[in-house]
Amino acid sequence: MTTAEQHPALAAVLAVLARETQAPVAPAVQAELATILAARRDVPAELAVDQREVTILVADLRGFTALTATQPAGTIVTMLNLCLSRLSEVVFRYEGVIDKFNGDSLTVLFGAPTAREDDVLRALCCAVEMQLAMRELNNHYLRRQMPELHLGIGVNTGMVMAGRFGSQAYSEYAVIGNQVSLASRIESFSLRGQVLISENTYARCNGVASATEPKEVFVAGKSLPVKVRELIAIASRRLKVPRQEFRRSHRVEVRVPCSMRRLDNEQPVGEPQRALIRDVGYHGLLLELERPLAPQDEVALAFDLTLVDYHVGDVRARVTKVKREEGRLLAGLEFTHIGVETNAKIQMFVQLLVGAG
């Protein structure tokens, strides 16, 4: 049996060449084509669906959607293409496989379709170098008076179903399963410049990665909290994540009605006032007011968190700033007293909204 007969794709290419040139393809050319096609057999045209362990890296540009409303289309296209090109170079250097681009985010696989012993290590190194690449890109953008872009990254390791999905008309290689969704959920908790990894990933890195102590977060679709760690460095490769943001918590936009009373010597005074919570974090919130407050005013708050089926009635807060925005009176408040259970419920509320986003 000839090489062409053993390799249907090669036979098809040779047939096209012969048809177009009206001459047989020389043996040397056949051999060269066979070599090229053999080099691509690491991603076969037809693969059976199987279950395998894969490390999934999800990276998303922070604030990119807001930039599209303030920057010319040409600037946005230039920035995005340069960014994705640079990140792709990092991915290919570590032999990752780009599963998909989704607007301003990308998903990368390590372990599918080809598994390697160091899949987890390569994924973590890739994540750190992606953040280093973003720092270089931002220096480039700033020199050209362009806005900065920041990346949040989540990494998870677990069993997935991998193979070709679709129909005879169209199909593509993909991985599906809860672990893929979890990688995306973990990424949603990452701040600008941060790399968050699951406990599964940390357990498989064989001690080569430095990370924070695990933190529990609630994500949509999970009844129990999920443990995540922040990746700090990979000392053996001299790689360190260049953090760019050190906020104390996430903040989520909401529209939650609340009741508010002023405090005088820690005692509520006057009639309750209505307000609207516009965003909330672990340590404070932003109120849209009907009546003005002044910086340093202290208030008692009551509101319902229907997502976690909880009534908040034991929160006190201090006004840290007041501003007018688009005709609305807004006040930023920092919690000064909050019950233990209420604190846990507010964190759960914030995490569920972040994880669902």
How would you characterize the overall build of this protein?
The chain has 357 residues and is an alpha+beta fold. The radius of gyration is 26 Å and the shape is elongated. It has helices at 3-6, 8-21, 27-39, 64-68, 73-93, 119-143, 178-189, 199-203, 340-356, and strands at 50-62, 97-102, 105-110, 150-166, 171-176, 195-198, 210-211, 215-217, 226-234, 239-240, 251-264, 267-281, 284-289, 298-305, 310-325, 328-337. It is built from 9 helices and 16 strands. Strands 1, 2, 3, 4, 5, 6, 7, 8, 9 and 10 form a 10-stranded mixed β-sheet that branches. The chain has a 6-stranded antiparallel β-barrel with strand order 11-12-13-16-15-14. The protein folds into 3 domains: 3-39, no CATH class; 50-240, Nucleotide cyclase, GGDEF domain (Alpha-Beta Plaits, 2-Layer Sandwich), CATH 3.30.70; 251-356, predicted glycosyltransferase like domains (Thrombin, subunit H, Beta Barrel), CATH 2.40.10.220. Helix 5 (73-93) runs antiparallel to helix 6 (119-143) and helix 7 crosses helix 9.
